[in-house]
Vacuolar protein sorting-associated protein 41 homolog (Neovison vison), 667 residues
Amino acid sequence: MAEAEEQETESLEESTDESEEEESEEEPKLKYERLSNGVTEILQKDAASCMTVHDKFLALGTHYGKVYLLDIQGNITQKFDVSPVKINQISLDESGEHMGVCSEDGKVQVFGLYSGEEFHETFDCPIKIIAVHPHFVRSSCKQFVTGGKKLLLFERSWMSRWKSSVLHEGEGNIRSVKWRGHLIAWANNMGVKIFDITSKQRITNVPRDDISLRPDMYPCSLCWKDSVTLIIGWGTSVKICSVKERHASELRDLPSRYVEIVSQFETEFYISGLAPLCDQLVVLSFVKEVSEKTEREYCARPRLDIIQPLSETCEEISSDALTVRGFQENECRDYHLEYSEGESLFYIVSPRDVVVAKERDQDDHIDWLLEKKKYEEALMAAEISQKNIKRHKILDIGLAYINHLVEKGEYDIAARKCQKILGKNAALWEYEVYKFKEIGQLKAISPYLPRGDPVLKPLIYEMILHEFLESDYEGFATLIREWPGDLYNNSVIVQAVRDHLKKDSQNRTLLKTLAELYTYDKNYGNALEIYLTLRHKDVFQLIHKHNLFSSIKDKIVLLMDFDSEKAVDMLLDNEDKISIKKVVEELEDRPELQHVYLHKLFKRDHHKGQRYHEKQISLYAEYDRPNLLPFLRDSTHCPLEKALEICQQRNFVEETVYLLSRMGNSR
């Protein structure tokens, strides 16, 4: 049974969704479900004739004279056998403690649901309508009206006796009535009247427009939007009437109130019911269509429309065709629209079905966005309304969004969205990385991988590095530069790079990256060697930063070849770590570099390298004659005889003259 109901509900939703031949991009305003449980059982053996709605419960009348009280899920809570024939109307007061019932055989009952007070009367004609005073629970408001051929007002006197008075007759059967506050509105064959119960005056008559329609087949629909606004639907016509107070100067013999029609327009179909929805209207319409094959008129699915009333026309906001059971046999009079003012719930009542329409909530809005694959909007809607949504989770929507982007091939956008959607969930990050690996898109997700809080398993980072190493050395080098060295197993990556260098030993990108990996691993000697081989500008910074002077004692020539100026400055600045003697020894086979070093040493301090001044004479003579004479003048440790010998051998006249004069041989 439950499964059958579920299938029916699904069928109803599918039918509603397919209400238009072409799928609309407009989001529906309402959602629908069948009122099931006890209602299903009732309508299998009986047919619904009328219903009224209270905030706390529902009251359903049937063609077999039964009245059922139901909870809002449709479960039966109470049953009353009122008559053997059709129940025409049920009325409840605002408290929900008193109920009035009338039937086709002329029976009228008004009774307390929780008290013993009761009124019974049987008339000699069918009683079509009944309405109890909204405040019937109060002793001063024990009043109700009934309508058959005439409209009768019943009032209980101080002696607890009921007396009746005729409010109206002579214009055919009374077929509809609505009581709000002090005003009673009813419809007969000629039009709609409003009666002021306080002043005992009838204050208006609104004639019906289309007198060609049978009033018993196309009854008038009435509803009060508030205590002074009455909405009338009859045939295809809608009128919105406002009850206003007449100015004292205009009174004379006129009623103290009058009615102004503030809006009037035609609809496409016949009206079966009306209900207010904020400043809009919910309209239940009976639809007849002509078959293309037989050209015969037939009853189509009823429509539930939301419209925006304007002064002389209306704007359609939404329109849904509803597949209610037995719609093919129903007439306009078989449908009723009841509503709960407290919550925006609308009940579409037909003989074999009761359908509930509800305003769609934020969860429904997200459902629609997801169905339309508008994931970005769905995610935004969920974030804005995260306190109100019950069925959806932001994370689930986000994951669906990532999957959608991947399916569309928008891998970079999908990867970028992971940052926001996955946040600090390491397990989800790892799951998504493996998904990207399966589709060969590890590179796409690599720039967005977390590098701290959370930190993923080393294997994840290594997997991506290997992917780059196989196909993109530059990308691999970028990741090594950007990623902290503790994210992955350094030795694993070093070995992988070395394996690649076996195939391409001179690849500068790989060599430089290997040097960086050695640096992360504090293997500075190997790093320095690579930097020197590559003549990399960062070599001096590396030496200073990591105090690698002990590692460069045998690499002084390499450093000098790379950048003699920087190398000499560094060596002279760190004499305490690499002695002058050690440097000179290392440069023994490269006298031109030895000269550069000793020359700069002499410039800094004339005495520090005094033991090498004799050696420097030859070096200056060979590599830097312009600075030889200044050296001879400034050095106090230079052996003059040795210097004179070298200068005379090379025919350096100026230097020879200087040396001879210094030695006292002026002649």
About this structure: DSSP finds 22 helices and 30 strands in the chain. Residues 2-17 form the longest helix (16 residues). Residues 1-11, 13-23 have pLDDT under 50 and may be disordered. The first strand starts at residue 30 and ends at 34.
